[in-house]
């Protein structure tokens, strides 16, 4: 017989036989897996960022399907809408969480916080942190070698060479929290995301006394407490010479911004309130319109 | 001549700048800042308040727990502040600030200059005295000495190794101590031998200090110190590392952590620590001052000072005359020293010298790619593979870094020194070591709970 035909025939018969064996083995040792896991995984964004606390989207979808109570599970990348639709598909109640955005709380630009020494070691914030406080005199400020930029999987962070600080694009940020874990100075915080990316926050983490802060940085919080007095909602607390605006209590009234003597309170995508002399008029005109 | 078996480098020792300068007593500082962390272990708790009057030798920081050390006031005066201040690296630390008024000592301290050799105390009493005096390893690691001398049950010390190596380039404080305070070193050694119950002690000295070797031998023969031997060692960095010194002197290898030198029967003490032990046990004097070298090629004058702790570092640099232009100020020597960015920082227990090198000398070469030449592996005194460890730390592969024994690294810097591509190897290994140690500790704690 032609060896070619023989080969094809042998392999063909062997293949069919083995396929039959494999079919029965697969039937016998079948692993029952919930088909919903696949469906849920398709609904998730598939970023595998780890922002939910699981190793990846597959692990998260397994947890979503298996746990009866999924209040504690939340995908920050997908957001509330997707979580709701997943919960609807699974017949469970989803946790309601307001969208968050990462916020970098240091305003010490090159101009306001001059460098006082020169560093030429490995270009990594973590390495600098093992040696000393960094090139500026501030022990709390941004080191500026961009470990967080590398940690971000969504390209939301960038290093501004002019200011020497990291900037976050709120539209790209998914609040996965990778940068928060990376920053050795704990400068990044996940805060409530307002419409149109509006934000008010204290861009300083210095727990030093005001006099010490003034020496090293012109944009630092000196803990004077004027903002806390001005805040009508009690959202601002002062701890160790440092003001903090509680994002859950803040209503973006902007009264604190003008009070700050060093400009440590940052206003994003909003017009500041008019300065002191004009303020009473604005209030009057508002009350008038309200009366009418 | 003996030395440790693997790795090591041979940098120029640069000791000629300050080795002939006799120890000078530094004028008393007007104000001292005392950090509550000048040792490995739990920070001491400040027990004085603003406005309190203190005497020289009075405890201002009480040790917390076993691995911790007391902090004593090195001057007499009034406490003006207890607050956070920056240390040499700019990091905020709890410090007690004392303004000096006169120089009044506690009455219990024996200030007579005569040498007191006889010691009849029990080992436990010696260790208690050392603990009260707040003595830590003055070679730089600042490990509390009473912990080192308390031999755990089931283990036995066989030999006391005294570290007179001073392998770090530039520094000469231990060398001057051996020359000028040899009697104190030897009596201190005798006390350590008594405390741990051994008959034999070896003082390891590198052969670039022949006069120290000769002088110590002369004093031993003259005053009849029994069981103490001076062993010249071949000059090689990092011979002053505890494990390297044990290997050089006894030929025994200390197993990887958490094993301690005592597991091979050795107790290691620095020569300066021996002086402190002598003063604490025989003279009741707590650890309040030390010999510190201020050195550098470009300084106007170099010095070996006997300075009180808490003296501002800037004062020492001022006296030496810092050259114009960019300089790097180091707390320690150029190999293991930490650069000082805040010169208002105080002198601490572990600081054996302050070195000044110019910006040009300090500059690192441009970082290139690893060419896999294996030089870093050759020089690593711990037998590690620095190029792998640094890469694993960079990639954050902590589990693999642990498998490659990154926690064994002694941070001597031989790998970064020798790398022809100027890779910042140690910078990354240090992160790996810290992270892996944290993970290992957390795992051990979790296992203990179970």
Detailed description of the structure:
The complex is a heterodimer of chains A (292) and B (450). With 292 residues, chain A is α+β, with helices and mostly antiparallel strands. Chain A has helices at 3-28, 35-43, 57-66, 79-90, 125-131, 147-151, 178-182, 210-216, 226-230, 255-259, 279-291; strands at residues 100-104, 157-160, 165-168, 188-192, 199-202, 236-239, 242-245, 265-268. In chain A, α2 packs across α3. Chain A starts with a helix and ends with a helix. Mean pLDDT of chain A is 87; it is low at 278-292. Chain B folds into four domains: 15-21 and 112-283, NADH-ubiquinone oxidoreductase 51kDa subunit (Rossmann fold, 3-Layer(aba) Sandwich), CATH 3.40.50.11540; 24-100, RNA polymerase II/Efflux pump adaptor protein, barrel-sandwich hybrid domain (OB fold (Dihydrolipoamide Acetyltransferase, E2P), Beta Barrel), CATH 2.40.50.100; 289-362, Ubiquitin-like (UB roll) (Roll); 375-441, no CATH class. Chain B has 14 helices and 17 strands. In chain B, strands 1-14-13-17-15-16 form a six-stranded mixed sheet, sandwiched between helices. A four-stranded antiparallel sheet of chain B has the order 2-8-7-4, with no helix packed on it. In chain B, β10 (201-206), α5 and β11 (228-233) form a beta-alpha-beta unit. In chain B, α1 (123-132) packs across α4 (182-196), α4 packs across α7 (271-283) and α11 crosses α14 (425-449). The longest helix of chain B is centred in the last third of the chain and has 25 residues, at 425-449. Chain B is globular. At the A-B interface, α5 of A face β16 and α14 of B.
